[in-house]
Amino acid sequence: MKTILQSYRTEMQCELEAILSYWMKNTVDEKNGGFIGQIDHNNTVISEAPKGAVLNARILWSFSAAYNLTGNVDYLQHAKRAFEYICDHFIDKKNRGVYWTVDCKGDPLETKKQVYAQAFTIYAFSEYYKATKESSAIIEAIELYDAINKYSYDTVNGGYTEAFTREWQAMDDLRLSDKDANEKKSMNTHLHLLEAFTSLYKIWRYEPVKNKITELVRYFLQHIIDPVTHHQYLFFDEKWQPRSSTISYGHDIETAWLLQEAAEVTGDKELIEQTKHMAVCMSDAVMKGMDSDGGLWYEYEIASEHLIKEKHMWPQAEAMVGYFNAYQNTQDRSYLDISLASWQFVQEHIQDKENGEWFWGVGMQLQLRTDWGVGTRLETCTYTPMKKDKVGIWKCPYHNSRACIEIIKRINHLEKNNTHEA
Q1: Sorting pLDDT into bands at 50, 70 and 90, what band is 7?
Q2: 299-301 and 306-308 beta bridge pairing
Q3: Could you tell me if residue 165 is inside a domain?
Q4: Which domain does 75 fall in, by range?
Q5: Is 422 inside a domain boundary?
Q6: Domain annotation covers residue 10
Q7: What's the predicted TM-score (pTM) here?
Q8: CATH, residue 352
Q9: Which pLDDT tens digit goes with each residue over 32-46?
């Protein structure tokens, strides 16, 4: 077991370096500052593309977290570049908050205040503060935290409303993306608010932040996670009534470990035990979406009984972490095997071995052939890379670099505490 874990850690160290090397080599915008807004699936730079708040915040988090783990000064330099660009171009200095997008030159483009983007910026600023202790980073993170709680918090029903205009006024279209339901609240935004507040509390031990973390954890346990299936509802009205039935396997396994991490920073022993138990239950539920080759399917539509036969990159990364977390909670080797199988699937199908980084994902194609010796039709499965961005509004170095960082840190922890199996 020790040899397996050491090998896994070494592979994660190499993969982290490979991922961030791609971003350092290909995405720095020497002309307009910051980072390129889009690179397509052929690795072609779209120099005039808009630049997204989520992309830039995730770049900042990834390089900051990698520096905090490795001490590599090249990572710190790129983190500094990302931090300064966000401060100079994304922060609305008049109305507070960050814009959704700016144009290629850094001027405000889509100026709505999507709470999801505010959360990721807090997350990134908090990690950058850990790396640099720059006072401006924690000041800006706190400013965003205050703005979210002033404008987005639902004082009647609890939780947070999805989106607002530039001036933080109500708006009709609250969707995070075209595929989302236009509802007041979502699992996704609350998950990343939880993630952001957890990171902020690690650098700013302010009691109201801890209280918000506890409150968010309880929303997941009481409203978001189905107590029978242990899958999550994705969308809600303002009163927490579910407005969707789709199962997102990637979000389920991501929530499993992030929910536990959040509870742990509160120090509430009862809450920690609840989330540990839930993490294992959710991991077990997600096994319905695990294919025999180690890949995790994207989504399942309960109403139509339709499985979306795609395997996107980010659910594979989350499966690596989520099942490793389940292994840590139980010492059950089968969970570690699933984590390792997910990583094996990534190596075989998700890594772009020609151009670097990870493909957006792969789609499954069934091929029929005839075995003329016995006269039967045989069905075989092949995977084809999806022709979607390598870099873009949504395609960032966050899920895959974070998976590497989490696995490395967790193996280091097991080794330090000698809690892995002999």
Answers
A1: very high
A2: antiparallel
A3: yes
A4: 2-417
A5: no
A6: yes
A7: 0.95
A8: 1.50.10.10
A9: 999 999 999 999 999
